[in-house]
Write a structure and sequence with these properties.
Elements (H helix, E strand, L loop, with lengths): L1 E2 L2 E7 L8 E2 L6 E2 L1 E4 L3 E8 L2 E7 L2 E5 L3 E4 L13 H10 L5 H7 L4 H18 L7 E10 L3 E9 L4 E8 L3 H11 L1 H6 L2 E3 L4 H10 L4 E3 L2 H25 L10 H5 L7 H11 L4 H12 L8 H16 L4 H12 L1 H9 L7 H16 L6 H12 L13
Parallel strand pairs: 2-7, 10-13, 13-14
Antiparallel strand pairs: 1-2, 3-4, 5-8, 6-7, 8-9, 10-11, 11-12
Helix pairs in contact: 1-3, 2-3, 3-15, 4-6, 7-10, 7-12, 11-12, 11-13, 14-15
Length: about 400
């Protein structure tokens, strides 16, 4: 038949003759009480034709729960779509945006969101949280005005996934994660990768007492690179104001790249710049000298090198680099922990996950509510389980 000029297929569903229905609450068989009006449940479309199951649900007189609507295995409470169709939409939502899925299957955005929400809630209830030894903690911005999310990832060698998402980046936010994670699992943690955000460090020290808190190579070198870029920008503006030759013009990536990654033209340009006694060049040489820190094996000798490098940097009279040296001195024990973990862990994995999270937000042109971004991130990066079924439509 046709409904609003769109072909549809309607299937009448009837219960077995003289059968007892099951209570929707306790799932026990109970005598029939009465019958409700007929309902339409949207099923997976066939060749672009919408399919509806038509059924008038019975009410049962349950001895435990009272008068309740019967349990319908294909239904999701009062929703208008079937359970199979909801899982079908949820699987497609991993490949396309929610709006594109809604348009492709001629349904509503709300039905797609509810399907993804159902898949995430089921997966979160049935996910395996055993044998988690290493986690990474970071924050990402999701709205304008310094609105952040705290994200926690599992970064073990055998499995990497999103574990938890929290609103804001406060001390209480991370406390909520450890409360959800549990005391026993927190005590079994061996390594925690994080940045230098003070609220995170405070909570990790309190809750993950047996874990090594690691400030890894990625965050440290990113911080030094930002300092070099600041020195270069300030010196370039000063040279231009003094009427000097603009030697540092278009030199940003030459100073930020590793020497082995430079092109032939960039190598020639760098060789010319090194001849001048510029603050940017001195900062660049300090950065390259610090790369030796990661080649050490012994935490003791790595610490001695760090102390010597900080002393030289403090005498360089380059304020952004002196600020970096002070920060590294304050976090010396956490930096040395990188060697105690034998350099096997890196939050580069965490930054990769963060990029995937930002891609998820861009694909949907942002989210207005925390619930929306939370569901989307769990669905895209949570590696959540799905129920075993006799037949898969996707």
């Amino acid at each position: 038949m046709c409904e609003t000029d769109q072909p549809t297929l309607e299937v009448d569903v009837h219960e077995r003759l003289n059968s007892w229905a099951r209570c929707s609450v306790c799932k026990q068989k109970a005598p029939n009480y009465d019958r409700q009006p007929e309902r339409r449940f949207e099923f997976i479309p066939v060749w672009g034709i919408k399919v509806f199951l038509l059924y008038a649900p019975r009410r049962v007189n349950c001895s435990c729960c009272g008068v309740k609507v019967e349990h319908m295995p294909w239904a999701l409470g009062k929703r208008q779509i079937t359970r199979s169709y909801a899982w079908y939409l949820a699987q497609w939502s991993k490949r396309m945006s929610w709006q594109e899925v809604a348009e492709a299957f001629h349904t509503t955005w709300h039905h797609v969101f509810c399907s993804v929400e159902m898949a995430v809630m089921w997966g979160r209830e049935h996910q395996d949280l055993s044998d988690i030894k290493s986690i990474g903690i970071d924050e990402i911005q999701w709205q304008k005005g310094h609105k952040y999310l705290t994200v926690v990832y599992q970064i073990d060698q055998g499995r990497k996934r999103l574990l938890w998402v929290g609103q804001h980046r406060r001390t209480k936010t991370l406390l909520y994660f450890f409360r959800w994670f549990g005391k026993e699992r927190s005590a079994e943690l061996q390594n925690v990768c994080s940045d230098m955000w003070r609220p995170y460090l405070k909570v990790i020290k309190k809750k993950a007492v047996n874990a090594i808190n690691i400030l890894d190579r990625y965050h440290v070198m990113a911080m030094i690179s930002k300092a070099i870029d600041k020195v270069r920008a300030e010196e370039s503006r000063q040279m231009k104001a003094d009427g000097l030759e603009p030697l540092l013009t278009n030199s940003r990536f030459i100073l930020l790249k590793r020497p082995e990654n430079l092109t032939d033209k960039q190598e020639i340009r760098l060789a010319d710049l090194v001849q001048y006694n510029l603050r940017s060049i001195r900062a660049y040489l300090l950065k390259e000298d610090f790369q030796q820190f990661w080649t050490y094996i012994s935490p003791y000798y790595a610490g001695k090198f760090l102390d010597a490098w900080c002393t030289r940097t403090m005498r360089s009279k380059i304020e952004p680099m002196k600020k970096i040296a002070k920060t590294l001195r304050n976090h010396r024990p956490l930096l040395v922990n990188w060697f105690k973990a034998k350099g096997e862990l890196s939050s580069g994995v965490v930054e990769g996950f963060n990029n995937k999270a930002k891609l998820t937000m861009r694909k949907s042109y942002g989210f207005r509510t925390f619930r929306g971004i939370e569901i989307a991130l769990y669905h895209a990066m949570g590696d959540l389980p799905v129920p075993k079924v006799t037949h898969r439509f996707f």
